[in-house]
Amino acid sequence: MSFKDLKLIKPLLKAIEASGYTEPTLVQQKAIPPILDKKDVIVSAQTGTGKTAAFAMPILQLLFDKQDAPRRGKKIKALIISPTRELASQIQQNFKTYSQFSNLRTFVIFGGTSIEPQIDVLKKGVDILVATPGRLLDLHKQDYINLDYIETLVLDEADLMLAMGFIDDVKKIERLCPENKQTLLFSATIPYKIEQLAITILKDPERIDVTPTKSVAKDVSQVLYYVPKRNKIELCLHLIRNTIKGNVLIFRRTKFGVNKLEQTLLKNGYKVDSIHGDKNQSDRQTALNKFKNGYVKILIATDVAARGIDINELDNVFNFDMPNVAETYVHRIGRTGRAGHIGKAYAICSADEKNYVKTIEQYINVQIPVETEHPYPLDPKAKPIVHKKKGSKYKKGRKSTASKKKKKRWY
């Protein structure tokens, strides 16, 4: 199927061609036609499947005939709600890419930065607004945003908005928009609360499920190192010093883990930055920009903070902590090896994570090659070490003295 088959107008086709895209992805094939028919849709699709273009292209086409309104007379007709600044910025860039042969004006607003420049642009008028929930409600409360003319409302990464505690804000924003609008909900997963949200705010929606790929890109080579848990940081340093070439995105499971590894690498003289949920939007964007522009070669992130981040020519992905969901592993390493660029996926696994590896290998139907030549090998038969708390009164074969004393009763 080609983009022409989706009945897109010539200015959009011209912009798509200029961007170098030749065929629509599966989510675009499924979502664009019902959106052009002005139906509500609920789409389940992972980041990286082309879902932003799946709503950007049809929205631009639906608004194309209304593009010639005087700039100061422009009213916001499409509103896209995104959970993070990084995602919002990428959505705006997508709209700019596909609207380059039109007069439609897109703008993005988010917190963690000065509000005055955003107010100035809003006063001049925009057609399409991309926003994070908090900043949108703030500017609406100050009467700088009018949602009375919204024709299409998009809720992007709905499950992440749920995880970040934005659902009540999303419901409030939806109520501020006209009742007869078109609503599009996009989410990587559809948990129960998102299902309930969809039932509440969407009208007879078309359900689109794009099954996430279980395969690993052919341009990504994988390697696995088994290591005692206590030696994980030492092995990480060894690989960065001797094996890994180019930039590397390191995934850790927790914010504490991200901070701990970042401090270790900084002390060892490496240029490194990090992103996680406790960092404000401005700091996260700064860290991402430094990594993208080559000022730092190492970026450490949690999965939630890294959702939707697209980095061109990423050389390496490093799984410091093995993910307990196989789908997450595929999503992580799929960030490298794109557009003909060769990528490498490293993983270090301690004894307590072995079952995760088995699950991942079953999911991708591939046995990940194991590298045994390194300074901190793990005995293949090793079991997780259970550390006893220091000073415990309870020791094997001996009752605690506290248990011998009878409690006095008072009658």
UniProtKB/TrEMBL annotation:
Residues 219-382 form the Helicase C-terminal domain. GO terms for molecular function: ATP binding; hydrolase activity; nucleic acid binding; RNA helicase activity. Residues 1-29 form the DEAD-box RNA helicase Q domain. The keyword ATP-binding applies. A motif (Q motif) lies at residues 1-29. GO terms for cellular component: cytosol. It holds the Pfam family Helicase_C. Residues 32-208 form the Helicase ATP-binding domain. Residues 384-411 have a biased composition (Basic residues). Keywords: ATP-binding, Helicase, Hydrolase, Nucleotide-binding. Residues 375-411 are annotated as: Disordered. Belongs to the DEAD box helicase family. This is DEAD/DEAH box helicase.
